[in-house]
Amino acid sequence: MEVNVKKLPESRLEITVTLPWEVWGKHEAHAAEHMAEHLNLPGFRKGKVPHAMLEARFGREAILVEAAEHAVHEAYPKALVEAKAEAIGRPEIGFEKVAAEAPLIFTIKTDILPEIILSDWKKAVQAANKQEAEKGVVVEAKEIEAELERLASMRATFTAVDRPAQEGDSVKVDFLVKQDGVVIEGGQATDHALILGSKTFIPGFEEAVIGMKTGEEKEFTLNFPAEYHAKHLAGKPAQFTVTLKQVEERTLPTLDDAFAQSLGKFQDLAALRKNVESGMLEEKKQAQKEAWRGAILDALVTGATLDYPAVLVQEELERMIQQFKGQVSMMGFQWDTYLAQTKKTEDELRADWTSQAKKRIAAELILQKIATDQEITVDTEAVEAEMNKVFQYYKSQDHIEKNIDMSRLYTSVRGRLTNEKTLEYLEKL
Fold first, then answer.
1. Is pTM beyond 0.85 here?
2. Phi, psi at residue 304, to the nearest 5°?
């Protein structure tokens, strides 16, 4: 077998393979048998049609094409080994010449995992570690008090009052939101509950309700914030019509030992405050850990040189699109409506996000390379233990076997655990 390799852009290879007739011609008989198995011919059982009759019916050229496909199936992995390439995605196979008593020449075009060049990566990671370590994690007293006030607000009592709405009141409103005379998607509600001053609505809305009386209707115009989560509304004006249906005065419990005890497991307010501080500290540590790892990955990606396989970029973009569709749905918008209002197409979103997709791909591939180079592995027991956590969500072994691709799950879990172990290694540099 003769193998010639040509590098193509975007981490692709073109591999030209030449097989002597002595090697690939032996597949002719097997190809004929395979064709016979799928042929219904009166007077013959399936698979028992003589070779001569097959050749007479289809021509030898058809049998040779089938034989060539069998030969490629056998030669393909060997050609990759000889080319020292790790293929990803589906290859493109093309035949240059298929003829009896002649060499079989075919080409393989395939995406491959790229070669990654990391320059001074340990130094870059150490610099990122030093910078992040200096930030530290502190929970300030005002943050603890704010959380205690939030807990108190969850135990608030409400009394209906006949007066203009004030900050701190709980109100119910009907509202309608229009742009250019058309009600926006998700822009209509009845008996919507709202704490005035909670800042859960866009700036200006709660302020407009303050001072209104029960039964009063009010119209006003506000601009959505520039950083509003629904991008098609961000920074744009809208017309609001609000009817105040109910005003209730909110009374908060006193933050004392009795309040702490009412939550069930605290002896006094000091114990509650300590628990709140501990919980907030843990949350901040987790946030810092994520930011720390993000800084490490940014440093690695910035210092890396690699080509990006088109197939991986497209797969990552598809994942990003599907995730964003879910977010849009959770915000109460239809996907087509969102695209129409933002005047974007999926292709334009893909173009906008390509840089981010490449960054994600680079981070994943770099972690894999470092794990390989530093011989970082996870044992089978750890992978199986993690898989068992997944199995707990299924009713039975039969249900597991029907709904889970075990091989894919094993590979996914092993990859995730290896990445975690690699990041732990990097954090200690």
1. no
2. -100, 150
